[in-house]
Amino acid sequence: MDYTKFLDGVVYEPTQNEGHGFDLTVAEVYELTGPGRIDFGGGELDAADIEPHDSQKRNAEDDYEWWHLDAGRYLIEYNESLAADVAVTIQARDELLARGASHPTLQVTELPRVPLSVGGEGIRLKENARVSTLVDVDTV
Questions:
Q1: Residue 55 in domain
Q2: Is residue 21 part of a domain?
Q3: What CATH number is given to the structural domain containing 12?
Q4: 0.70 exceeded by the pTM?
């Protein structure tokens, strides 16, 4: 399937499209800095306060930065966005899971910020790292 017809902001299609599905890349990591609010009727919904997590270059000559994430919860934002009205299923990549981090499998019609859970000793994520895979597309 040509996933690129549904996506904008693709970083490098040949690598992102080499396995089953289409890999999504991280553009930003946010820390939760204040509570959100959810009520029964939806009239008092408030988003949680967030701030971009600091990133840094591993070496001065590097082009891309790394996020050093301790155990905890974060929000990740993708480089990619949906370019059409489609429903997609996204899941965490095996490489992310094998390093002690995860996010929920979601079926969405736009690519939201996704909660990232980091366990153990934390994880290092490089800018544009492939962290999720789009595994299903259904036209709506």
A1: no
A2: yes
A3: 2.70.40.10
A4: yes
Number of domains, the chain: 1
Structure tokens at 114: 């996704």
| Structure tokens belonging to residue 36 | 């959100």
pLDDT band, residue 86 (cuts 50/70/90): confident
29 forms bridges with which residues in the sheet? 76
Structure tokens at 98: 């094998």
Contact 134, 92 (CB under 8 A): no
Cβ within 8 Å of residue 111, ≥6 positions away: 24, 78, 80, 81, 82, 88, 90
The predicted-structure confidence for 12-37, as pLDDT tens digits, reads as follows: 999 999 988 999 999 999 999 999 99
Domain for residue 39, yes or no? no
Asked if pLDDT for residue 81 goes beyond 70, the answer is: yes
User: Is residue 8 assigned to a domain?
Assistant: yes
